[in-house]
């Protein structure tokens, strides 16, 4: 069988179509993979940031409820304090489950330990206020300041650590995108 000019042109045209289809399929696959990686990374980073910021906010709100109760005696503030404490504990547990860096796990342990010290002193201040022992309330409020400050500093350190992780992750995602960009350029040159 001999190939005449029209068969050669048709064969070459079909070969180009196959190459373009293969290149398009490869490009689509790579872009989908990159999009999926970016979406998962963004969702995980957003969750970590929300949890870290939420912990700091909950600890701060606990302090507000404690101070308000110790000034007003409104028993509803004890419930509010307990609610914020529970929410912070839940967020700490959730964050600990998704954090993989050992240094950050240590920060979570510090937050938890200092928060427990602070809450123990807060409970004593509640009992003193209910017993109308204002001198003890003042002492407990002063004593609570040290572990409260330590837990807030650790919580803000966690927020900064998560922010640093997000920046590193963004750089890694950009590097992957750059790698895919050069791969696609090479495939396009080969197809051309």
Task: Describe the secondary-structure layout.
Elements: H1 5-72, H2 76-98, H3 102-130, H4 134-191
Helix pairs in contact: 1-2, 1-3, 1-4, 2-3, 3-4
Structure commentary:
By secondary structure, the chain is mainly α. Helices cover 93% and strands 0% of the residues. It has 4 helices and no strands. Helix 1 runs parallel beside helix 3. It is rod-shaped and about 110 Å long. 23% of the residues are buried. The model has no long low-confidence stretch (mean pLDDT 86).
Share in helix: over 70%
What is the mean predicted local confidence, pLDDT? Answer: 86
**Rg for CA atoms:** 29 Å
Number of helices: 4
Weakly predicted, low-confidence segments:
none
Biggest β-sheet description: none
In terms of DSSP E residues, the strand content is under 5%
Structural class: mainly alpha
The ordered string of helix (H) and strand (E) elements is: HHHH
Number of strands: 0
**What is the terminal separation in angstroms?**
29 Å
**Broad shape:** rod-shaped
